[in-house]
Amino acid sequence: MKNTIIILCAALALGGCSIQKKCKAPQLELPEEIVSGQRDSLAVSDQRWWEIYRDPILSDLIRHTLEHNRGMLSAESYVRQMEELHRITKTAFAPSVSGQAHADRKSTDYHDRALKIEPKFGLKATLSWELDLWGNLRWAKRKGAADYLASVEAQRAMQMSLVAQVATAYFELVALDHELEIIRRTVLTREESVRQAKLRFEGGLTSETAYQQAKVELASASAMIPDLELKITQKENQISVLAGEFPSRVSRSKMDIGVVMPDSLAVGLPSTLLQRRPDLRQAEQQLKSSMAAVGMAYADRFPRLTINLSGGAENNKLRHLLESPYSFVTGNLSSSIFAFGAKRAKYRAMIHAYDQARLGYEQKVLEAFREVNDAVAAYRQMRKTAKLKENLKEAARQYVELARLQYINGVIRYIDVLDAQRKFFDAQLGESQAVRNEHLALVSLYKALGGGWDNTTPEEE
Q1: Residue 15's pLDDT is what?
Q2: For residues 20 and 385, what is the distance between their CA atoms, to the nearest angstrom?
Q3: Tens-place pLDDT, residues 394-437
């Protein structure tokens, strides 16, 4: 018996070594820094999303979306499904117990013989236990655990993306509101310009050309309103559906052009990126699941040993049933004789599937580093652009004031005033879009670093 146990342990050890040898570890070779020149122990992704997006209306909208978004609810249901399936794999180690009760009534009426009735009653209980000789059950348990954890990380990755989608759509909606406000103010200004140009034309102070130019500028600005209103409606509908609601009006704040954004944000260390991003952790769990599938295919090539212990009672009379006990023990060693080649091919196929998962994980890590570097570069440039657009707007505003004074004093033509007003109008829209892009760059950076999936408050930690 002792020798048998030693042999079995040696076989299990050899099997485990074989799997580890066939399944190569990912070749990551992480750089020392995520972004060249930045080496931070903490990252902006360590902050909760309500600490990053300080708008209380946006925070409430994100909370509502996470609670009612259909995709999020479906992901939560899938996690619960995988949890239950994982429980099934854990129960495979325990013996299974089954019971059976039967009652038979056999009658025979052969030629030249009297009618014979043979009743039979029985109770039977069977305990069955599979010995995990080659680790098949252990690999199945590991695969179930990895699949379950992958579903958890998939849910977190979905939440991370959902938070980013809501924040992006919200900032775009607020920017559209601000652009519409700029256009409507501009329309009011140009209506006044048309009125004054008409008076000057009718008074003989200017030609009709100046009057018609003012009307063209008014019509040009007015024509932008319907398209912008349509975009606002579509953006509201997008946010409503994300929040699990039918299309409706969305509450939001006004755009704060003077908001001060940080010049730089901590990105953390390469190891923290792997730890923070749930999509990378999901790919890692999928890799573990693929390795476990290799182990299961390896163990399936060898015979399975099952021990059965059965006992019960059987008699042809019901009142004497409990007085007729029986029991027996059996051991079943089962294996497919002619399927070894097919099982070996399946084992090799699972190794190739593991290699695909490993290379996919390595590619996912490379893409994550690219996304962070792109997001950092975009945030830096959007910060510079927002500042330049602010300077441009201020210069254009002063240009309008100067042009108006020079026109009143007869130094320049009215078309020069219209040109100054047009530049100021474009500069206002440009600043609004630059501030929007600055916020969107922050959203992209926060997501790229793996922020947005953690809902725990400091009190819950």
Answers
A1: 54
A2: 52
A3: 999 999 999 999 988 888 988 899 999 999 999 999 999 999 99
Listing DSSP states for 385-453 in one string gives HHHHHHHHHHHHHHHHHHHHHHHHTTSS-HHHHHHHHHHHHHHHHHHHHHHHHHHHHHHHHHHHTT-S-
The predicted structure's pLDDT at residue 458: 45
pLDDT given for residue 179 in this prediction: 98
Helix (H, G, I), strand (E, B) or coil at 224: helix
Task: Tally Cβ neighbours within 10 Å of residue 165.
Answer: 18
Q: What is the DSSP string of 269-317?
A: -HHHHHHH-HHHHHHHHHHHHHHHHHHHHHHTTS-EEEEEEEEEEEESS
pTM > 0.85: yes or no: yes
**Residue count of the chain:** 461
What does the pLDDT read at residue 17? 65
Q: Nearest to residue 435, comparing CAs of 219, 203, 259? A: 259
Indicate the burial class of 118 (C-beta count within 10 angstroms; 0-12, 13-18, 19 or more): exposed
- For residue 406, count other CB atoms closer than 10 A to its CB: 15
Among the listed residues 222, 248, 221, 252, the one whose alpha carbon sits nearest the alpha carbon of residue 237: 248
Asked if residue 332 lies in contact with residue 306, where contact means CB atoms within 8 angstroms, the answer is yes
pLDDT of residue 100: 92
Q: Cα angle at 44 between 39 and 49, to 5 degrees?
A: 165
> Residue for token digits 């909370």?
63
As a whole number of angstroms, the distance between CA 70 and CA 241 comes to 9
pLDDT lower than 70: segments of the chain: 1-17, 457-461
Structure tokens at 365: 């890590």
Integer Cα distance of 113 and 162 in angstroms: 83
Intra-chain end-to-end CA distance of the chain, in Å: 51
Q: Which amino acid is at 94?
A: A
Annotate 102-122 with DSSP letters as a single string.
EEEEEEE--TTS--EEEEEEE
